[in-house]
Amino acid sequence: MGISSAESITSVLQETRTFPPPAEFTAAAHINSEAQYQDLWERAKDDPNGFWGEMAAGLHWFKKWDKVLDGKMPDAKWFVGGRTNVSYNCLDRHLTTWRKNKAAIIWEGEPGDTRVLTYQDLHREVCKFANVLKKLGIKTGDRVTLYMPMIPELAIAMLACTRIGAPHSIIFGGFSADAVAERNNDAQAKLVVTADGGWRRGKEIELKNSVDASLEKSPTVENVVVVRRTGSPIVMEPGRDYWWHDLMHEASADCDAAELDSEHPLFILYTSGSTGKPKGVLHTTAGYLLGTMLTSKWVFDLKDEDTYWCTADIGWVTGHSYIIYGPLANGATTLMYEGAPNWPHDGRFWEIIEKYKVNIFYTAPTAIRAFVKWGDEWPNKFDLTSLRLLGTVGEPINPEAWMWYHHVIGGGRCPIVDTWWQTETGAIMISPLPGVTTTKPGSCTKPLPGVVPDIVTKSGESLPANAGGLLVMTQPWPSMLRTLYGDHERYVRTYFSEIAGCYFAGDGARRDADGYYWIMGRVDDVLNVAGHRLSTMEIESALVSHPRVAEAAVVGFPHDLKGEGICCFVTLTGSDGDDQMKQELKDHVRKQIGALATPDMIRFSNALPKTRSGKIMRRLLRDIAAGREKTGDTTTLEDYTVLATLRASEE
Ligand code: WT7
User: Against a cut of 0.70, is the pTM above it?
Assistant: First the structure.
């Protein structure tokens, strides 16, 4: 769906089913009435200083802030003059309470090995690794890349970085060596923490080998710390590479948390934009911590007795905010699973829920569609009655998948929180409150306290109920990104120049007559593949880097499991393309970017549809990729015959 040709976006979705929260759920919920929600929301909107100041009292401060909010978007600062520490808030402050010996992390590896770390255990390991970082010369402000499997050492490394104020940059283990090098260079990372490998569907992901290849192109990295996970042979370069266990063996478990400024950089996380290289979204200390802590409590209704499981990979923001920082700041028990949902069988998730008696389960629509496909017999084999709350994130959920989740997984008794947010927002922005909000399948419902969205036209006018437009935020919020690392100008241009005075991050949406938000997807040339943003431009550059490719255009098309599939229209030099060439190009993109970006469809064509000014008309390609016969307005098309040729090009 594009917004280029129309002021507003036409919505075709009609959904009238409603699901009020069960009375028992409401009775025990942290936020338990519409009036309470309304009061919080109005107060936060009218008096952000008072509201957020009150909320921030829930954090530990070494020094209290002088001012809650200073300045306005794009350069709003929060809790100015305050000093705090994320690792201290997630660990130390629980140690003087009964939670000292409570499970902080319950971990299950893909092969079935398990580990439980209490808050005391986690604190000890984090302090030790913080000392390891110091010993390797890492100082407050230095950037550390974490390229790791989903093992407890990843959580330990994150918290150790935050303890000494060294911003981490986590790179999803599915990314290739080139992608790692690009991110290392952009962040000027000094250290990489990795593992020999990780397990995924019984196969090993060779992380250390990728790091070795990436380091040929990323000269700022001085050392590599390697966790032994799979035990397969790797090369350790003397003087550069160290084993995690060797360094930890010698490290002291005594390490005070650094007293960091509220606005001290906490982490960088790379995310796709429509043009250029990946954007290094930068989050800072106090605001991010407060946002993830409060939303974990409000949206997941986290209680001390809960076993909470978010299935995301920590390489994405969901894992940062809702496996680690939000839950641990609340003193919760968070479950972490290394592997795939369908290994060694399609019921692995349900088996884990039964085994640990999981109460809260947070996953993505793309996973839910896969579960539907694998069949009800899998969840039906396991006891899922411990579940009390379900959540989704990453893309709009189709109402039928929502209904399946509600009935088959939730047994009809669990509220579903459909949470809208982004890497940039740091924390959940629009979501049901499970004890309050009557849900409608497919809607992320209403803004949380402190979030003041609007739906506007391209010229910034507020739209009436049910008109689709651009989703914007009209007020700053504590957990918002502060900049794009090393490129503040791009930050201002990307998020704040589209609509004056507002934050805009690329989604179309409408608001219904009840004030419920319905996200309609991204409006720019960014795909949402399996709940993750991929830039069409990056895939195009990867294709064009192949010697046989003259030109490429990449678009999304509806895909049953992934939400959006990747379709590449390619013009070759020399002879015609064949199946072998298609495979070669798929492998090429996979190698350049990573498995996540592997094209689903390659179509060869001698020419691409262009405007007279030479712009590729992706809108038309999207229609063709989706198999739509009739395409939209073609009056600006330079050469009409191209369309017929493209339609004839088959997959
Ligand atoms: C984009 C952000 C936030 C973590 C996962 C992805 C889409 C996210 C929803 C939802 C409809 C959603 C949006 C957003 N999105 N959650 N509940 N309903 N769409 O993080 O990679 O930063 O992507 O994901 O398009 O802009 P991300």
Answer: yes
